[in-house]
Amino acid sequence: MTRGLFEGIPLVVVLLATAVALLIAAGAGYRLGARARTRNRGSTADMGTIMGGLLGLLGLMLAFTFGMAGQRFDHRRELVVEEANAIGTAWLRTDLIPEPMRGRARETLRAYVHVRFEAASSGSVEAFLAGASARSEQLQGVLWGIAAEAASASPTPTTALFVTAVNEVIDMHGRRFAAAVRSPIPPIIFGTLYAVSFLVLLALGFMRGLTGDGSALATSLLSVVLAVVLALILDLDRPFEGYLKVGQGAMRDLRTMMDAAR
Model-level pTM? Predict the structure, then answer.
């Protein structure tokens, strides 16, 4: 299992710690710039060129990482709809198998939908693996046993349609598991983004000290904005933690339909 950067640390803590660290970097840069100014070292023209390059690099990296996190978020949202469709198809195809297997299959699918719906609120990767994922795999085994029994009892093309639908339900679990647990944004990308952010604030502070600008408003605002954007990217990359959650409307509607069919 691949772990994301700062996984398990509350997002608010990451946000505040990042903002404080960026402000410290700006303050350290200011002190270094003030020392260079008193010794008549350093050129503001050179610093302006360097700052332009650093800000351009930071903007490019932010856009790239934000886009990557957004694509992963959208992919997880699409998989919810696809899984709901796959389970709904399996539910409809239970009509193609005889009793008592039909009733057992429907009860299993109903329980499965409840587990999958609750998986979105697991709270952490560990809770998901220990609870929803383990329970899902257990129900998949029961469902596949029913499909195998139906195929043995009635090896017809109509029964094969139900078996195919069950297979798709199991495959969708694997796809959602991979999207949620095994493919976070590589920590090295986040680490590089954080390093460039600290370097930019250090350089901005140095430039302020070099020019004798005592106002820290610009660097303070940039520190806060950068911290918020970095926290937002982290939030997009966290399926179980944070504030941005993938909507479960399709799964909720499917659960309502199944419960009403009792």
Answer: 0.83
